[in-house]
C-alpha cells in the first residue's frame, strides 16, 4: 500500500491526506475568516516581539509585517483565495505569508501555538464588540433621556399585572428603561476590564522555552497585562460567556421595551404612532400598519439567549487544556453581536421618530380608578381611619362610580360624600389624577420633581460614561 505525505502545515507525522468529509467537518475557515484583522494585528506584534527578543532578524520581522499588510489588503479587496483545506484563518494567512515572503514566513509561528493564537484573536474581537455595544447603549440612553425630559408632565396609567394601577408620568417610565440600559453598559464595562488580558505567548498550554516578552506583546496590543496562567489562557472562554450573558440581558431589556411599543401602538392603547419609515403593511389588509420592528426585536432575544446556552453547554465538561469543542465558540458570538448591533441601532431610530399621543395617555388614566389608593391614603392620614377600613370605604366608592358609569376621578364632591358619612368633602382633592402623581414625591418616585432628579442624575452619568469611552 503506497502512502503519501500530508500537505498540511501540521502534517509532518501524517502519511495520508485527510478525507474531503473531514475537511468540511473540521474547518472553521468559513466563519472564522471574520477574525482576519485581529489575526494579522496579533501576528505583526508577535513578529516585533520576536525581533525585540533576538529570535527574528530585523529583515525577517520587516518582511513578515510587509507580507501581512499585503494579505490584509488582499482580503479587504476580496482578492484573497480562501481554501477549505487551510482549515482556519490562522493557517490560511500563514500559508499565504510563506508564499509571499518565503522562508521567513515559516518563522512567524515560533513561540506560539494556534491555541493561544485563536484565544488572542477571539478575545480581541469580543473586546471590540464590547466597545461597539457600549457606544450603542449610550446612544439609546441619550435618546430615551430626551424623551423623558420632554414628558415629565405627560400622565399615563402605570400598570401592574397589565391592569391600571396608579398615574405616573411618561418621563418616569422612560427613566425605568434608561436604568436598565445603564446597568447593561456597566456590565459590559466591567467584563471588558475583567477580560482585558493577553493570552498570546501561552503557546499550546505550558508556555514556551523561547526567551519571549509577553508584557511587551500585551502592552502593544492594548491589554492591561498578559494572562497569568498558560493552561488557563488557552482553554478559557469566560470572556465569550461574559459577553453573551451581557448581551442576553440587553436583549431582555430591548424585548421588554419592544413589547411596550407593540401594545402602545395598538388601537386599544393608541399611546404612540410608529413612523411609516419603521413600519410595514399587510399583503391582504390595506388598512394595516404593523409594528414589525418591535416584534422582531422581541423575537430576536430568543436567538441571543440560545447562543449563551449553547456555549455554556460546550464548555461545561471540557478538561484542560484546549479542546476542539471550543471551535463552536465563535458562530454564536458573531450572531449575537450582529443581532444586537442592528437591534440597538434600529430601536434608537424608531424611538426618535415615533409620535407620542399625550391626550390618549391622559384619557386612559380616567379608566381603572387610578386614584383609589390616594383616597384610601387620605382617609388614613386625615380622618384617623385604619387602613383596612379606608380600603373598604374606597372599594365602596369604586363600586358606586362604576354603577354610574364613571371613573372614580370623575365623581363630584356630592357624589363622593354620599357614599359613606366618614368621607369629608376635602377628600375630593385626593381624586385628582395629577395631584395623585405629584403626591409620589419620594426619592425615585413619579412626581415631576422626583422624575427631574432622576433625569439630572442620569444625564450626569451619561456624560461620565461618554468621557470614559473617549478615554
TrEMBL record:
Alphabetized, the UniProt keywords read: Amino-acid biosynthesis, Arginine biosynthesis, Cytoplasm, Lyase
Location in the cell: Cytoplasm
Alphabetical list of SUPFAM superfamilies matching this protein? L-aspartase-like
Q: Tell me the GO molecular function terms.
A: argininosuccinate lyase activity
User: Gene3D superfamilies, per this entry?
Assistant: Fumarase/aspartase (C-terminal domain), Fumarase/aspartase (Central domain), Fumarase/aspartase (N-terminal domain)
- Which residue ranges does the record assign to the Fumarate lyase N-terminal domain? 12-306
Q: Which InterPro entries match?
A: Arg_succ_lyase_C (IPR029419), Argininosuccinate_lyase (IPR009049), Fumarase/histidase_N (IPR024083), Fumarate_lyase_CS (IPR020557), Fumarate_lyase_fam (IPR000362), Fumarate_lyase_N (IPR022761), L-Aspartase-like (IPR008948)
As recorded in UniProt, its EC number(s) are 4.3.2.1
Instruction: Give an example GO cellular component term for this record.
Output: cytosol
Q: Which Pfam families match?
A: ASL_C2, Lyase_1
- Which stretches make up the Argininosuccinate lyase C-terminal domain? 370-437
Q: In which pathway does it act?
A: Amino-acid biosynthesis; L-arginine biosynthesis; L-arginine from L-ornithine and carbamoyl phosphate: step 3/3
Catalytic activity annotated for this protein? 2-(N(omega)-L-arginino)succinate = fumarate + L-arginine
Top EC group: lyase
Choose any GO biological process term that the UniProt entry carries and state it.
Answer: L-arginine biosynthetic process via ornithine
Source domain of life is: Bacteria
Q: What coarse category fits the chief subcellular location reported for this protein?
A: cytoplasm
Q: Please state which protein family the record places this protein in.
A: Belongs to the lyase 1 family. Argininosuccinate lyase subfamily.
Extract the PANTHER family matched here. ARGININOSUCCINATE LYASE
The record ties this protein, via HAMAP family, to: Arg_succ_lyase
Q: What is this protein called?
A: Argininosuccinate lyase
Q: Whose protein is this, by species? A: Helicobacter apodemus
What gene codes for this chain? argH
